[in-house]
Structure formats: structure tokens, C-alpha cells
Write a structure and sequence with these properties.
The complex is a heterodimer. By secondary structure, chain A is mainly α. Chain A is built from 23 helices and no strands. Chain B is globular and about 60 Å long. Chain B is 45% helix and 16% strand. The chains are: A mainly alpha, B alpha/beta.
Chain lengths: 582, 346
């Protein structure tokens, strides 16, 4: 797919001997099994007349049906607009927040740094539901208030539109953008800015000629990553777009899977559509690689210590703080408040004073004493724990082989670890069903929580390995070299030197995967069975089953739990950054 | 279609019929037949039942079944998506893993399984089942979903509330109408109206720029919330919010569009006798009433159910299960028209 990231000083290529070679072979085999086997099954499915891989026949009819459909160009156009719009808006918010929090003297920066990632605790489907309650054209609370205050005849906003979808998606993505960009802002060497300023450069000149060139690779890499996410995301387009018949590629795949008029899922068309998806996403993945490679070149963090220069905002600092507070209110408080409201209602109703009389704790009491909910909670925690642990370990090993050891086949291993990001959750779920039905006699995990663990490990490995690579290249190999010179083998070096150094990053990967696995919906839906109900599928069950108030209740508790996890993650990440800075 | 049925499937069906008939004539009471099947089903493991009701509701049915047939356990697997339930069975059968013993769903789903020789052919008469309930050798009716017009009582007065299908095409409901994403009620209406008139109706509805919902459950909730003041939904889906006090008005139509959900015994199921027992029990007054009480969906073919009283004397619009294969393409055309409609008029 692309070249490996350029690291800081590295050991010679192919070092480590047979131990490393064996480890590399084992990891490569595991990744081929996790990533390539499902993709092959999808390829077979696209060539079957019925789409079921184990049924007879060979055809290109599914491709003809999908790509010959006159609505296909519109579908692609809508998808591209959604992805570009969401990415662009999220980048603007993310850059602004990263700059304000990391490089200015805005008051409350420490608190904002923690608050800004909290939207990640809100499952996107809940964010969409919350915003539907706030900005729907007829009953949305914000619309009603604005119509009342300004005497408007019609609602000023409609969330069931492409701009509405883009707005909500961008809110969901801002924390990820911030997490990508904040280190780049934080780690920028102030000497360059100071040199520009002392040379008489104005602020705009400095931004244009110094800051942007320095930040461009990080911004571009972040943009490519967000674009990939926007192409595969289902929750928000599914909740806000499908009712208004605004389809993107992922919702079209879901429609063909779950609501096909034929009575069974049209897997053949799903897989044929998926190949187009994969081509686009692999292209974006390549761009992402290129940009991250660039960002390694531009990395300015080094052994010498420095503190980034904080730009004084003067009287604007309070306005900036107000703006960030507004973002936090929109991204977290408003949707959470409306969900809390819904969770207190016996049925979905708009927030009015007269509705207050209906308030009841029944949904919350039911949550606390419902055996199914307890089972789903235990399942969610178990799946998230094992997925997070395995991703953290595998990411560390992959990164060690790729970055530190430059093991034979490092390029292949790195590409395989990154590939799953290009597979939409719905498609991954379909593929996993086939893999584990076919291999049921070897790995009888179909219908159990373990199939979810395998799916999540596959899916989140791309993130884990990127983060681990990023940290691994920043650690100078002197300590490892010293250990090797003292006679320690590669395994011992990994265990005693490298692993402790990257431990904070591994912990950060662990918590990030834990939080995302707790809220993941699309893959879980495709793999759900009676024995592996998790909180997101239960929430979806309630939502589609006409119990939005119970769905909101599950959501509120889920958000609270995830917020706790993310706070822990943030603390660990900060510690990781401080450790590296030292 | 019988020529598509695999020999072992036929044999399995014959075995059930023989079991039902053994030691008794066709006049044997259904209760005795059920008890014989229960005796055979015990010891063959739990009965796996794929169906669409929310699990909380299904638990009530499962409990009542377990009380009636001691020693038999039913495991309910929900799939509300419609198409997914059939796909799951196909995948599991082809993967040679444990699959459903009984599937309850729309005839279009079951027919996909029949075409793949995955459904047991039954001699329903030998099992004491009336032909009005079992339309084909593969299916037995389990419940009837009834489409009604739902309106928000606080936003739409009694006088202006739409009373029948044509009222929904009044321009005053433009941007205020909610529909199911699947053209099931339209397909049922086509049994009386024909394809041309039904397609014209769909196009008129499209001009209203309706919101499409994945299921009629959230549709009913959105009518309650006032997001869509008017909707065409399933009666049983509106019951939960109505029971909680939501301001939803229910209007029966004439003709009444209905969709019968059928049960089919899966040929590759491990406990096919248990699956058949469950299917037969759901078609008895006892089973139908338990099912209706739990889900709000009654059995129009079983006397004593609420839905039977509700539909009495009305004109019903629905294709029989035997007509489904011939109508699949028409259904697909309706679905496409519904999905493309709003974009076309925008």
C-alpha cells in the first residue's frame, strides 16, 4: 500500500535473527487470517448470483446491477459531499480547539482539554437521536424556542437534511480531530515562530509561512483519517438520512442487507458495492500513509526540552473560552440533556413545562433491575475488556516488529494492520458470519461474545497500530541498543525496555478501544445472537422496537460509563505525553 | 414449488404427519396432537425460534409455552429487520451449524427458504389445521399485522384526521406524513386495487414527501411526539405508547391492509418436532391469545382474538402466502418507487 513511516534512528533492517523472523511470520499469518480471509469471502459473495458465498454459480450481474443503477452517481455524490463536509467542518473545529487549548493563554485550558474529548463518550447513534430531538423541523426544542422568540412561521433548522447530517457528524468527529492535532500544536518548536517574529513577520505571515507548513502534514493526515471514517460511518446517516431518503454508501449497504425487498439480504450487491467502497478507502489509506510519513519528517520533538510559546489573546481570551464552552454545550450537554429528558418520560414527547408532570424514574429503575440489561452490561464489559487488551498487545507487537525491528515483511504486516479501517462495520460483520460459520468446527464462536471480540480486534487494530507506531518512532533506540550490547535478546528487550517505555501509550490504546468497543453498533448488529447481546444492540433494539425512552435510558448510563473511561484515558494520555517530553 | 422440495424434507414432513395421525383419526383434537408432538420433542434440545417481537414480549410467550408443555424450553432469537431473519437461517444452514427450528416471518422471507429446500412440507389437514390458516404446505399463519392510520390527537382534530387511504393524499399532509420504509401495506392493497392503481397511490403519497421509518415502532413514537402528525403504521406497534398515555389516535381503514406472518419449520433444525409444536400452538386459541396479549398482534384466523373482532365485517386486503412468489417483483417495484419518490419530487 505504501512505505513505512520514517522513524528516528533505527536498528539495522532485518535485525533480531530467527526469533524476530518467527514472530513476524506468526503475526503476518494472524493478520492474513483476520483481514484477508473476510475480504476474500466478500469477493466470492460479489460473484455469486444470490450473494451467498456457499451457493453455486458465478456472475458479474451484481456489479452490473449496482453500477448500472441510474441512482448510483447520485449515491456517490451524496456520500462524497457528506464525507467532505463532515471532515472539513470537524477539521475547522478541531484546529481551532487545538490551537486555543495548546497554544494560547485561554483561561481553563486544562479543563477544556479534558472536556473536549467527552463527546467521544456519546455513541453516534445517540448523538443523532439527541439532535433529532433538538433540531427536527416540527418538534425540535431549539427550533421551537427560536420560532417562539423570533416569531418565525417555520423552523429555521432541519436536521433531516444533508447539512444537518454533516453538522452532527462533524460534532462527533471533533474529539478525534483534536486528538490528532493537539500533539502537533503542542510539540511545535517555538524557536521557529520566534525567529519569524523577530524577523518582523506579522501574525498572518507567520501563520501562512511557518505554522501551516509545519502543521500541514498532521492536518492532512487527520483529514485523510476522518474522510475514511466518514465514508464508512453508518449511525448518523442511518438515523438522520434514511428517514428523509438521503442515502450514502454505508446506509445503502445496510438497506440492501436489512430491508431488501427480496426477503433475504442482497449480499451479492452489498459485496459489489463494497468493492467500490474498498477502492476509495484504500486510496484514502494510501494518502493517510503518505501524510503520516510526511509528518514524521516534520516532527520537531527531540531530546532537547522546550515549552511551546503561548500566544496572548488579550481581551479575546474570555470570548475564546466562551466559544469553547459553547462547543462543549452543543456537542455534549444539549444532546445529553435531551436524552436525560427522554429517559424520564413514559413516551417520547417534546420538553415542555406541561410534560414535566409525566416525569418518572421508571425507565431508570427498570434499567437497574432488568436481568437482560445486567447481562448486556456484563457482555459489553467483557467484550470491551478482551478486545482492548488484545488490540493493545497486538499493536505493541506489530509496531515493535515494524518500527523497531524492521522485521522481514514489515511492510506487509503494517499494511495488513491498517487495512481493516477501510472495511465498513456492516461488511465486516457479514464477512465474519461466513468465516465463523465455515470454521465452526475449529472455532465454535458464532453467536457468542467471542466473535465480537475477534471482530473488534480486527477493526480497531488499525487505530492501535498507528498510535503505537507513532510512539515507537519517538523513542530513541539507545536504551535498546545498550540492552542488546549487554546480551539481551529481542524478546527480553521488548519486555524489559521497550514495553515499559511505551506503556502509557499502550494504556491509552487500551482505554480508547475499550470506550469504542463499548459503543460500537454496526458490526455488533450483524453478529448479534441471543447469547451475545451488548448494550449498543440492546439500545438499538429498544429504539427500533418503539421504546425510545428506554433507549435513552440505556444511552444515558452508557454515556456516563464511557465518560469515566475517557477521563481515565485522558489522564493516561497526558501522563504519556509528559513521559515522552521528559 | 413442490418439485423443489428435497426428498428428505418431504420425508420429514411425512413423518410428522404420521406421528400426528398415529393412533388417532384426523378428527383427533389438536390438544392430543400437540401432546404427542411435545413428547417427541422432549429430549431433542431447546426449540430455537426466530421471530421479530421484542425479547421482553417474547419472554411472556415462551413462559406460557413452557408452562403448557412442561420440560420443553424455547429460545427466542429476535430479528426485527425483516430480511435478516431469512438470511441468518440460510447462512447457518450452509455453515452447517445449529439454526432455527421454527421461523415466524413474512411469506416472502419463508419463500426464499422454501426455494432453498430449507422448509419442511407439512400435511396440515392430518395435523388438524384448518385450510384457512395454512395456505400452503410450508406455512401456517401465526399472527396478523394490521395497518392503521395514526394521528397525533393534540395536533390533528377529530374532524380533520384522515379517515381512509385517499385522505392521506390531501396536500395539507405534505411534509407531515410518516410511512414504513417497506411497501408492505401497499402490496396488500394491490391485492384489491391491482398494481396500476396502487402504483398511482404510491406516487401520490410520494408527492407528500413522507418520512420513511425503518420500522413502524419508531414511527408510532414519532406520531406521539408530533414529529409526524400523521402516519400509516401497524396497530400493535402503536399500542406500547398508547398504553403509556401517548396522544395517538387510531383510525381503521376500508379496505384494511393486513400482513399475515407465517411460521415455517426449518428442515435442518435440530428439534423440528418442537418447532412444529410451537407453530401449531400459536394457531390454537390458547397460543394466539397468549401471543396477542404479549405483543398486541392477534391472529385473524382464530376466534376470540381482539384482532378478529376488530376486523370482523371489514374488507381485508392481502395476498395469500401462495401468491407471494408471483408478487415478489411487484413488491420490489413498489419498494423502489417508495425509496426513490421523495427525491424525484424534490
Amino acid at each position: 500500500m505504501a512505505a513505512l513511516p520514517h522513524a528516528a534512528p533505527r536498528p539495522p533492517e532485518g535485525s533480531g535473527g530467527w526469533g524476530v523472523r518467527l514472530a513476524a511470520a506468526a503475526v503476518a499469518a494472524l493478520l492474513v487470517y483476520l483481514v484477508i480471509v473476510p475480504l476474500v469471502l466478500l469477493g466470492v459473495s460479489s460473484l455469486r448470483p444470490t450473494g451467498f458465498p456457499l451457493e453455486p454459480g458465478l456472475t458479474f450481474g451484481n456489479f452490473a446491477t449496482v453500477y448500472g443503477d441510474p441512482r448510483f452517481p447520485k449515491l456517490v455524490g451524496t456520500t462524497v459531499m457528506f464525507a467532505l463536509g463532515s471532515t472539513g467542518l470537524a477539521l475547522v473545529f478541531g484546529i481551532l480547539l487545538a490551537w486555543l487549548i495548546e497554544r494560547t493563554d485561554m483561561p481553563g485550558r486544562g479543563a477544556f482539554r479534558m472536556l473536549v474529548i467527552l463527546p467521544m463518550a456519546t455513541p453516534p447513534v445517540l448523538l443523532a437521536i439527541g439532535w433529532a430531538m433538538l433540531l427536527s423541523p416540527r418538534t425540535g426544542l431549539f427550533n421551537l424556542i427560536l420560532m417562539d422568540v423570533f416569531g418565525l412561521q417555520s423552523a429555521p433548522f432541519n436536521v433531516y437534511t444533508l447539512p444537518g447530517m454533516i453538522f452532527v457528524e462533524s460534532l462527533a468527529l471533533v474529539p478525534t480531530a483534536f486528538l490528532f492535532l493537539a500533539p502537533a500544536f503542542r510539540n511545535m518548536d517555538p524557536n521557529l515562530e520566534e525567529a519569524a517574529l523577530t524577523s518582523g513577520a506579522g501574525a498572518w505571515f507567520m501563520v501562512r509561512r511557518v505554522l501551516l507548513p509545519l502543521l500541514w502534514p498532521a492536518i492532512a493526515a487527520c483529514g485523510a483519517f476522518l474522510l475514511i471514517v466518514c465514508f464508512v460511518v453508518f449511525d448518523i446517516p442511518g438515523t438522520l438520512g434514511m428517514p428523509a431518503r438521503i442515502y450514502v454508501l454505508s446506509t445503502q449497504i445496510y438497506y440492501l442487507t436489512a430491508d431488501s425487498p427480496a426477503g433475504v439480504p442482497l449480499y451479492g450487491q452489498v459485496s459489489a458495492l463494497g468493492t467500490f467502497f474498498l477502492l476509495i478507502l484504500f486510496g484514502l489509506g494510501y494518502l493517510y500513509y503518505r501524510f503520516t510519513r510526511q509528518s514524521q519528517k516534520y516532527r520537531t520533538i527531540s531530546g532537547k526540552g522546550f515549552r511551546p510559546r503561548l500566544i496572548p489573546l488579550g481581551p479575546w481570551r474570555w470570548l475564546a473560552a466562551g466559544g469553547v464552552t459553547l462547543y462543549f454545550a452543543l456537542a455534549v450537554l444539549a444532546p445529553l440533556a435531551i436524552l436525560v429528558w427522554a429517559s424520564l418520560m413514559p413516551y417520547q414527547t417534546r420538553p415542555t413545562l406541561s410534560s414535566l408532570g409525566l416525569a418518572t424514574l421508571e425507565n431508570h429503575l427498570d434499567f437497574l433491575r432488568n436481568a437482560r440489561l445486567i447481562t448486556a452490561t456484563v457482555n459489553s464489559l467483557t467484550v470491551a475488556f478482551f478486545a482492548a487488551t488484545l488490540v493493545a498487545i497486538l499493536s505493541l507487537v506489530v509496531s515493535w516488529l515494524v518500527v523497531r525491528q524492521r522485521a522481514p515483511g514489515a511492510q506487509l504486516i503494517d499494511n495488513l494492520a491498517f487495512t481493516p479501517i477501510a472495511i465498513p462495520g456492516v461488511m465486516l460483520g457479514v464477512a465474519m458470519v461466513y468465516v465463523y460459520l465455515t470454521l465452526d468446527f475449529v472455532f465454535p464462536i458464532y453467536g457468542s461474545i467471542w466473535i465480537l471480540v475477534v471482530a473488534y480486534v480486527t477493526h480497531y487494530l488499525s487505530f492501535g497500530s498507528r498510535l503505537a507506531n507513532g510512539v515507537m518512532v519517538q523513542i530513541h533506540p539507545e536504551l535498546e541498543e545498550a540492552a542488546r550490547a549487554s546480551g539481551a535478546g529481542p524478546g527480553r528487550v521488548l519486555r524489559r525496555i521497550t514495553a515499559p517505555l511505551v506503556w502509557p501509550a499502550v494504556a491509552a490504546i487500551w482505554i480508547w478501544v475499550l470506550a469504542h468497543a463499548m459503543r460500537e453498533l454496526s458490526t455488533a448488529l450483524m453478529l448479534s445472537g441471543r447469547e451475545n447481546t451488548v448494550l449498543p444492540t440492546l439500545l438499538w433494539d429498544y429504539w427500533t422496537g418503539g421504546e425510545p425512552t428506554r433507549a435513552a435510558t440505556v444511552g444515558v448510563w452508557l454515556i456516563v460509563a464511557l465518560a469515566v473511561f475517557l477521563t481515565i484515558w485522558h489522564v493516561l494520555s497526558e501522563r504519556s505525553a509528559n513521559t515522552r517530553a521528559r | 414449488m413442490a418439485d423443489l422440495v428435497k426428498r428428505r424434507t418431504l420425508l420429514a414432513g411425512t413423518a410428522f404427519a404420521a406421528l400426528a395421525a398415529s393412533g388417532a383419526s384426523r378428527a383427533e383434537t389438536p390438544a392430543a396432537t400437540l401432546d404427542k408432538l411435545a413428547a417427541t420433542a422432549r429430549g431433542k434440545g431447546p426449540i430455537i425460534w426466530y421471530e421479530s417481537s421484542p425479547t421482553d414480549q417474547a419472554d411472556q410467550i415462551v413462559a406460557a409455552f413452557g408452562k403448557r408443555f412442561q420440560g420443553l424450553e424455547v429460545r427466542h432469537q429476535r430479528d426485527a429487520g425483516g430480511a435478516g431473519i431469512g438470511g441468518r437461517v440460510i447462512q447457518e444452514v450452509q455453515g452447517n451449524t445449529r439454526t432455527a427450528d421454527l421461523l415466524t416471518g413474512s411469506a416472502s422471507v419463508i419463500w426464499q427458504l422454501v426455494n432453498r429446500e430449507m422448509v419442511v412440507r407439512q400435511d396440515w389437514a392430518a395435523l388438524g389445521v384448518a385450510p384457512t390458516v395454512a395456505h400452503t404446505p410450508f406455512t401456517i399463519a401465526s399472527t396478523t399485522a394490521v395497518y392503521v392510520i395514526l394521528t397525533n390527537r393534540q395536533m390533528v382534530s377529530d374532524a380533520e384526521a384522515p379517515k381512509n387511504w385517499d385522505d392521506l393524499t390531501d396536500p395539507k399532509w405534505r411534509n407531515k406524513l410518516g410511512l414504513w420504509i417497506r411497501a408492505e401495506p401497499q402490496l396488500s392493497l394491490a391485492s384489491l386495487w391491482g398494481e396500476q392503481r396502487t402504483m398511482a397511490f404510491i406516487e401520490k403519497m410520494n408527492a407528500q414527501r413522507p418520512f420513511l421509518f425503518k420500522s413502524t415502532f419508531p414511527l408510532a413514537q414519532q406520531v406521539a411526539a408530533g414529529e409526524v402528525p400523521v402516519g400509516v403504521g401497524l396497530y400493535h406497534a402503536a399500542l406500547p405508547p398508547i398504553r403509556r398515555g401517548a396522544p395517538i389516535r387510531v383510525q381503521n381503514t376500508d379496505p384494511v391492509a393486513t400482513t399475515t406472518l407465517h411460521s415455517a419449520v426449518i428442515a435442518q433444525g435440530q428439534n423440528r418436532e418442537g418447532g412444529l409444536l410451537m407453530a401449531l400452538w400459536l394457531a390454537t386459541p390458547e397460543g394466539a391469545l397468549v401471543y396477542e396479549k404479549a405483543t398486541g398482534r392477534g391472529h385473524a384466523g382464530v376466534p376470540g382474538t381482539e384482532v378478529q373482532k376488530m376486523l370482523a365485517g371489514r374488507t381485508l386486503a392481502e395476498f395469500g402466502a401462495d401468491k407471494v412468489p408471483a408478487n415478489l417483483e411487484m413488491f420490489e417495484r413498489f419498494n423502489k418507487a417508495l425509496a426513490a419518490g421523495a427525491q424525484a419530487v424534490r
